[in-house]
Amino acid sequence: xxxxxIIPILNAxxxxxxxxxxxxxxxxxxxxxxxxxxxxxxxxxxxxxxxASQEPSRARFLTHATHGSRGPSATRNLGLSYAQGxxxxxxxxxxxxxxxxxxxxxxxLRSHPGAAMIFGRVHYFSEDPSGGIERDQTFGDLHExxxxxxxxxxxxxxxxNLFPCPSATLVRRAPLLEVGGFEDxxxxxxxxxxxxxxxxxxxxxxxxxxxxxxxxHSRSAMAVMxxxxxxxxxxxxxxxxxxxTYLDHLPGAVRRPLEPLACQRMFRVSLAxxxxxxxxxxxxxxxxxxxxxxxxxxxxxxxxxLRYLTPAFLSxxxxxVDSGGLRD
Length: 328
Description:
By secondary structure, the chain is of the alpha/beta class. Strands 1, 2, 3, 4, 5, 6, 7, 8 and 9 form a nine-stranded mixed beta sheet that branches. It is 45% helix and 16% strand. β2 (31-37), α2 and β3 (59-63) form a beta-alpha-beta unit. The longest helix is centred in the last third of the chain and has 20 residues, at 229-248.
């Protein structure tokens, strides 16, 4: 088996048949399909079971033991635990693939055997007038080709528009298992966490080709989360906590290019969260931030506290905008 295609499903009945059809239309035919439910209640389970039964030799329906929702990381990891392919491709249930997606990315990875992963770009589209602007994902200042650890991870942290959508990736299963797959504890930016782990430990191939169609709609997981500011901030804090903890155990040469960006991200989201509690006086928020972040050794390295607590850093960054302003 060459490719294991994993589709996580959460109340995606409206779009699931189109996603599966785009897998079946691939010019590469050597794939297995793992449809993994995350506690759907809209009829997605019945539809997924039916589609899996149409190709029992290479399609399978999976669900959590509790039949409840455990989040996108645990759901993708459940699929990974059953995967048999040399390569793993993730497709979100509301996204689509052009017919050449798998063949194109397989050809690149086979010509670069040292690369653990290839990622391309997505085309954002919407059939919902309120869903979003149709556009291509940016490639920024990236170049096509191999990035060695941890180069591409630095770029992902520097510009959130660059890191790949899961539907636009193809990963070798062995290194994917070696880094432990997705982080079950993270429910937002869980894909970024995995790409960072891979970028820290393995070469990654960046490709500007459009290899997936990303559907924008008001019921997507990200759209729902963005409407709840508190939930969004708490999930972002969980990601930043994971990142700083993960980096802390790495060799200095690997950690140093990533750590300043991780600290900036944690400082800004933690400050916004602290200020949401109402204390915006200069003494109050500084003391509060020291208490919150002192146990992260990253903030004590290289005098970063001095830089992050200066007016110049705050006035030049997003913290002032996100927090609604600070009082002296």
